[in-house]
Amino acid sequence: MIDRNDVVSPAGALPMLVLRVLQSGILHGYAIAQRIHVLSSEVLAVEEGLLYPTLQKMLRKGWVESEWGVSETNRQVRFYRLTREGRSQLKAELSSYDRITQAIQEVLRTA
């Protein structure tokens, strides 16, 4: 069982994670959060209060598109799909992440 204090909220990296998860296919919000949680070996937890405003921002920027549909639990939900602009943004986000990660590693090695 995971202690709630051991679960991390990926606030700064959330757009990148959402774009990457949507690269694999169309998902609704709850499924996006669950996929990130599962793929991170249950380390990352995406709270609704952070996810849905992020998705709205991504819609406005044209990184994702959405359409209403019915979930596997027979609920009316919004499904999100990555756009061409979203694919370009994901590439930029991954490049930036790699640069930052390398810089942090350099500081940790040499400090």
TL;DR of this structure?
The chain is of the alpha+beta class and 111 residues long. Helices cover 55% and strands 14% of the residues.
Describe it.
The protein has helices at residues 14-22, 29-39, 48-61, 84-110; strands at 27-28, 64-70, 76-82. By secondary structure, the chain is α+β, with helices and mostly antiparallel strands. It has one domain (4-110): Arc Repressor Mutant, subunit A (Orthogonal Bundle). Strand 2 and strand 3 (76-82) form a beta hairpin. Helix 1 crosses helix 4. The N and C termini lie far apart (36 Å). The mean pLDDT is 91.
Q: Which terms would index this structure?
A:
PadR family transcriptional regulator, Tscrpt_reg_PadR_N, Arc Repressor Mutant, subunit A, globular, single chain, Tscrpt_reg_PadR_acidobac-type, 111 residues, Metal_resp_DNA-bind_regulator, 55% helix, 4 helices
CATH class equals Mainly Alpha
Count, helices: 4
Helix content bin: 40-55%
Stated plainly, the CATH topology is called Arc Repressor Mutant, subunit A
Provide the domain count.
Answer: 1
Low-confidence segments, given as residue ranges, are none
What is the topology, as strand order, of the major beta sheet? 1-3-2
Termini gap: 36 Å
Radius of gyration, rounded? 15 Å
Q: Name the overall outline.
A: globular
| Secondary-structure class | alpha+beta
Main beta sheet: strand number and arrangement? 3 strands, antiparallel
Mean pLDDT: 91
Corresponding CATH architecture: Orthogonal Bundle
